[in-house]
Design brief:
The chain contains 8 helices and 7 strands, in the order αβααβββαβααββαα. By secondary structure, the protein is of the alpha/beta class. The N terminus is likely disordered.
């Protein structure tokens, strides 16, 4: 019986601006199980469950959002709420299949503030984002995507650094570690929140345009 070689992460292959202090070991399935028990920041105390990434373990494209919403928290899967439905529409228009990409978030627990019976989304702070970066790092190292799409400023700054500005650098390819490439685009929830029909249509068109760039890169090999 062949000897099983343990996974040893190499931060040189990690397409993140600031690697975490530690990266969980084991297969992607093992890391998913470990993430369910994460207690490294307070977010787990009020969230329903950990929302880990989903998709092929050898996907060439990884889409990274910001953090789960209310529906994702309840269902335990990324991008299953209104933003997910908009993303599905945009992916279809761009010529990409949801089943062929790996979908995840920068933060794995839903952060919210109660407002009556509603749970209103609240942005994870820097410490919470840093505590969760180990799980994103583990996903990136195991899936090894060739193309990485950051949706929203939180994901973009995790990949490209704190100086990245979405309004100036959206839609521009950036070199990443391990010969990967990254691009940032609007998060679908940003499009949904955009006021004014013309402005919302423009933001959605830019999201589709950026995803079409990904489809073209993927097709070119």
């Amino acid at each position: 019986m062949p000897q099983r070689i343990p996974f040893r992460p190499d931060v040189a292959d990690l397409p993140l601006a600031k690697p975490p202090e530690r990266i969980p070991t084991g297969s992607l399935a093992t890391v998913r199980r470990k993430a369910k028990q994460c207690r490294d920041c307070p977010l787990w105390m009020h969230a329903t469950q950990t929302v880990f990434g989903e998709g092929p373990a050898d996907a060439q494209v990884m889409l990274i959002g910001e953090q789960p919403g209310a529906q994702e928290d309840l269902q335990g899967a990324p991008f299953v709420g209104p933003a997910g439905r908009m993303l599905d529409k945009a992916l279809t228009q761009a010529g990409l299949s949801r089943e062929a990409v790996y979908l995840t978030n920068t933060v794995k627990h839903f952060k919210f503030e109660p407002r009556g019976k509603a749970r209103l989304h609240k942005r994870a702070n820097a410490a919470e984002q840093a505590a969760c970066r180990q799980w994103l790092a583990a996903e990136l190292l195991r899936v090894k995507p060739r193309l990485v799409v950051a949706m929203g400023a939180m994901a973009a700054q995790a990949l490209f650094g704190a100086r990245f500005r979405m309004t100036q650098q959206r839609g521009q390819w950036q070199p990443l570690a391990a010969q990967a490439e990254g691009i940032a685009t609007w998060h679908p929830s940003y499009v949904l929140r955009t006021r004014g029909g013309d402005a919302r249509e423009r933001a959605y068109a830019e999201l589709v345009k950026d995803l079409r760039q990904v489809a073209a890169r993927l097709a070119a090999g």
